[in-house]
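FW: tagging you since you asked about this chain on Friday. Here's the raw sequence from the shared folder, copied in full. Didn't touch anything.
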Amino acid sequence: MKLDKPVPGGPCWTELGTSDLEAAKRFYADLFGWRPETDPRQEAGGYTVAHLGDAPVAAISPLYQESQPVAWNVSFAVADADTAVDAVQAAGGTVVLGPMDVFDVGRFAVAFDPTGAAFQLWQARAFPGAGLFNAPGALGWVELLTRAPDRAVEFYTTVFGWTVNASEHYTQWGIEGADFGGMVAMDDNFPHAVPPHWLPYFAVEDVDATANATVGAGGSILMEPTSVPQGPRIAVLRDPQGAFFGVHVAGEEG
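HL: got it, structure written out here
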């Protein structure tokens, strides 16, 4: 992505809700070199922040509700969570949690866009979001997979003011032209059981080696390593608990 820090409207954080916190911590530490630190406060519920060096890059947490799927989630930075929630609802989205304060670090909400994809809103206070983007092991791209791409464009450009760079095969999202993500139209090749969703991509030195390491650790490959025309080498993987995530070659934008 062309962003190197959280900015209003852009992706600022990604977090995994998982059925086995300790196993997920080990898996991603081995795969990406993360150093996980679990918040010891009981009220934090096991929330774990992963670091590369001193920089926070992602989070891993237990599932907090029975209905919560094992999945990666993407958060977008907003200046005011309450105002953003109003904008989401006015544009046809649905708010399912919040806005609510998270200690002194920020204000948070969870929503669904009109096409059914979940996303999160983050109003920063003490914690702005990821301290590193695009480096190996850090978030490098976010991608919306949806069955209603035209409705998604209408919604996200209205709520966040994103710019849209669309070609015949792929649509890219940006902040004033600085692309940070894209959109894939889900066709009949996607099982109907797979809902629309946001997919984080992490930068890696070697996509093929990362895919092989995922399989060796009990995960699987959903999309084999592929070199995208005029783009990076990418793969889509699944961790041992079932969460999807993407990887791409560090230094090459999606």
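FW: DSSP finds four helices and 16 strands in the chain.
HL: agreed, and The radius of gyration is 17 Å.
FW: great, closing this out.
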